[in-house]
User: Fold this.
Amino acid sequence: MSPWTGPVVVLAVLAAAVLHASWNALVKATDDQVGIFARSSLVGAVICAVGLWFVDMPAAASWGWLIASALIHVAYNLGLLAAYRLGDFNQTYPLARGLGPVVVAVVAALVLDEPLAPLPAIGVLVIAGAIAVLGLTPWRRVKANRPAVLAAVFTGLTIASYTLVDGIGVRRSDSAAGYTLWLVGLECAATAVLALALRRDTPMLAAGGRAWVAAVAVTVMSTLAYGLVLWAQTRGALAAVAALRESSVVVAAVIGMLAFKEPMGRVRVAASIAVAVGVALLAAA
Assistant:
């Protein structure tokens, strides 16, 4: 990252992190998680269909990556639903997010020829280690709920996959906005069809106004959050952006403690502080 774009990229990704943790908390808080995914996906598909009139079409070289990412995002949504149904928010969220930076950093360095400088590389390791502590402590809770851990790990692998795919795709698109809207639109359409198929006997679309307000909020926050990340990936190293994005686990840990009354001991507080330290190392680069 250049000296000028560095702080801008950092602020954009930190804003995306707050938005991401917030919309995930909304999904976790609802009693009908499949329903909110269906409604938000329908809203997202409509918003993207309108927005596509105002952005440039992504370049042809990016379409293969874009379609692959949309499919991976659908798998991510399924993993996320399973993780939130089976486990606590402040455990499954950081565990799912924690795998991404490590996998992205390794693949970016070995395959995409994007090795990190020493300082940001240390930042990636600090963030990944702290997130592992947040997701794997206390150990008795992990052992007692292995299905939730497996669902979170699967979700984390999909996060790493779409981060890498989109990092390549958006750079070939010549239009970060166009790539974002097409990606979100395709993902939303596929997710809506899947959610409605899973719940054919339940009138999800006949939900009250509050349910639709929540769906719109999820759609707007998730689209804006990932749009900021995709833009940042055109300006900064993939591994650094991926790690910086995972500062959302600190926000998630606080939300889990305050909103869901989930445990937050000294070890987890220390791990949250370590994430902040890792973010500072990346920002200093």
Notes: Residues 39 and 205 are 7 Å apart (CA to CA).
